[in-house]
Amino acid sequence: MSDPYVLDDAPPVGTRRRKRRFSGCLPMLLFVAVAVLLIGAAIKYVAGPWVEDLFGDPDDYPGPGKGRVTFVVDPGQSISSMGEELEKLDVVASSDAFVDAASDNSAATGIQAGTYLLKKEMKASDVVEVLVDPGNLAQDTVTIPEGLRAADIVATLAKNTDFTKKQFERALADADALGLPDYAKGDPEGYLFPATYVVTPQDTPESILRTMVTRWKQSASDLGLEAAADELGYTPHEIMTVASLVQAEGRGRDMAKIAQVIYNRVENPGTAGQIGRLQIDATVDYALGRPLSVGLTQDERETAPGPYNTFRVAGLPPGPIGNPGDEAIKAALHPTKGDWYYYVTVNLKTGETKFAETYAEFEQYRAELQEYCATKSEAC
Q: Which regions span the lipid bilayer (predicted)?
């Protein structure tokens, strides 16, 4: 008879009870663990940024900013619209930061329509401080075309601002204050970048000219001037000299080919009937101190004094003969490869220019220009 308090299938005394297997529960536990990890990741990487955007501070730059940005406030423009435009211009990191900063400044409701000078990557509150001050409204804009000489730039600035020619000339003489590169050797020619500039009531002749040099530095940096010049085997100053010649002589796609003609003549004197002299008319005009002309006489070419006359002096002139823009600088840095040693603009109206590898070919194109001048143009 069995003991009523002992189960029939109980293990014998003195033996171990076999552990139960939980094979049916383990997959469920793994599933739960993975699900917890996925939910945690979702909270961190999906919901987290959303919650942060909802309750955190909007993106904002630390300032003070860099470069120059012209910003126009339209009549009746809302703060939020300004913010959106400022964000597109990369003046502020986010429109929300600008709107918040404007909300914290009671004067923001009185922002006046007009043109303001700002910087890229400014702190939003600093932008608001600029916009609420009517004294920061730009009063004038001055456009400096490509190729103008320093003397012509001074005349243009004096004509379009409240400052005199003498004031600008005095400012030009202070190379250190302008921030010219060392290789300019104190001469601003070639380093006053052609562009449209906003002149504010706070500007001075020194600040206007310094801004032009700063704009040149920006262009030089963007184009990699110093590294590209070194790769070509020239100094940055020599490249700016070539760029000024290209600016005076060509336009559009021809610029890079003209640059190659200049390098070919400098590097290979005696080839294709030329003697290593550039023989560029624009340098004679510069030597004579007069505007570019078409009707140079042979006597002027042969007798104009000074080192800038490339009909008399071999190689490059000692410096730029004007202030080139981006296109001309880029052409000087990246010339179109070719064996040309001559070029002739055969149509002064369209600017059509033909390039020659030999002197005989050049003579042919020159006769074409003479025919054009005799029958189709009075500009020659």
A: 26-47
Task: Report residue 106 as tokens.
Answer: 């009671």
Other beta carbons within 10 angstroms of residue 169's beta carbon come to 14
Helices 236-249/225-232 angle, 10° precision: 90
Kindly state whether residue 306 falls inside one of the protein's structural domains.
yes
Residue 239 shares a structural domain with residue 350? yes
Dist. CA 99–CA 158, nearest whole Å: 39
In this structure, what token pair is assigned to residue 116?
């303001």
CB 190 within 8 A of CB 320: yes
Q: What is the pLDDT of residues 193-229, one digit of tens each?
A: 999 888 877 789 999 999 999 999 999 999 999 999 9
Residue 16: per-residue pLDDT:
45
Provide the Cα torsion 364, 370, 375, 380; round to 10°.
Answer: 140
| Nearest CA among 202, 80, 65, 66 for reference residue 134 | 202
371, 253: one domain: yes
Q: Is residue 75 part of a domain?
A: yes
Secondary-structure percent of the chain, ordered helix, strand, coil, rounded to 5: 50, 10, 40
What is the spatial distance between Cα 333 and Cα 230, in angstroms, rounded to a whole number?
A: 10
